[in-house]
Design brief:
Blueprint lengths: L24 H15 L6 E5 L6 H14 L3 E6 L7 H15 L4 H16 L30 H18 L4 E6 L6 H17 L3 E7 L3 H7 L4 H4 E5 L5 H14 L6 H11 L3 H14 L7 H24 L4 H16 L11 E2 H8 L3 H13 L3 E2 L5 E4 L4 H8 L1
Parallel strand pairs: 1-4, 1-5, 2-3, 3-4
Antiparallel strand pairs: 6-8, 7-8
This protein binds adenosine-5'-diphosphate (ADP) and magnesium ion (MG).
The site of magnesium ion (MG) has 5 residues, from helix 2.
Length: about 400
Amino acid sequence: MVVDPIRNPYAPGAGQRPPELAGRDEQLAAFDVVLERVAKGRPERSLVLTGLRGVGKTVLLNALRGTAVRKGWGTGKLEARPGQGLRRPLSSALHQAVRELGHGDQDSVDHVLGVIKSFAHRDAGAGAKLKDQWSPGIDAPAVRGRADSGDIEIDLVELFTDLGGLAADVGKGIGIFVDEMQDLGPDDVSALCAACHELSQSGLPVIVVGAGLPHLPAVLSASKSHSERLFRYQRIDRLSREAADRALEAPAAEEEAAYDAEALAAMYDATGGYPYFIQAYGKAVWDLAPRSPITAADVAVAAPEADAELAVGFFGSRYERATPGERDYLMAMADVAAAAPADGSDVEESVTSADVAAALGKKPQSLSPARDSLLKKGLVYSGERGRIAFTVPHFGRYLRERG
Ligand SMILES: Nc1ncnc2c1ncn2[C@@H]1O[C@H](COP(=O)(O)OP(=O)(O)O)[C@@H](O)[C@H]1O
Ligand SMILES: [Mg+2]
């Protein structure tokens, strides 16, 4: 049985839907319960997915959205960007959600669309000229005096209240999916938390589902509201051996191909169970293996190919965003982590900023600008005060190998 490159099923790439969404049944099942409860007006915490880059947060968020769509919910998604306000992307997402909801009464729909429009118009500031107002492509006239006070918290509550009413009319709900949530501005975060709090108390069927880097819970709890009671955090991590095998084997079986036992062991060894690496290795091995079953020898032949691909597509694109000074800082982090006593697991350790400074022979304060900039660029995160870690798995190894 020949393994045909044209039929290669694997899908490395940010946000690329994997051929098999392995190891996420628990989250999907939990979300089903959340949707049912929210639609019935029961109190329920929203889901927030956290994890390193490449573990599959975006594709899981998309899958959760798919679940909501199949239940007839109105859904919209946005990706937060540093320095960008919430009004525009949220308006577009909500416009989409209202369309998906398919409410039959045009007057009610137009009213809510008009509120979304007035919420969006406020993006340009009070009394802005018409030409400076940004519109989310909504035909309905703006509803003045609703969701346009300029206080984002008040406006979100009014907006969500009207949306929730519309969804409740038809016995459904509204799901707002926010990717890269750690990049929301502080005012937007606290307003969103306050609005979610309000929603949960009024029993309106609107939920915000988020995904972001591991420090997202810290970002949310820094805002004034009680985020720990609003959100249920789900750490999305590397796959178990069993799930990783399934991620590789199920798509292969569709093409009538298979892996032998040593090949699967070698794959897990190389990928550490990280979904992005599984897809990258799967793709390279499939392209180079002469026949099925795929063997450990095939994996060995394909590994340099997979690593080269990752060096460009996964690691390199991030490394390039760092300035020379920041690169020194990253390299020192990698050295300090490598010098720490290995516990044999593949889990990437955080290091202390003090150790990094010592390794560079500098005072910690003098390195704060580099550290802060790396935090802002999302290359590192700080889960605990004084400690710092890569947001990209295996990044330390990559840095040390490139020298
Ligand atoms: N559960 C999974 N099983 C198999 N492959 C997955 C899974 N989740 C994600 N992937 C793959 O991993 C890669 C990264 O996924 P992505 O959602 O972009 O990660 P993140 O948003 O956490 O950075 C993609 O190529 C995707 O196809
Ligand atoms: Mg993502």
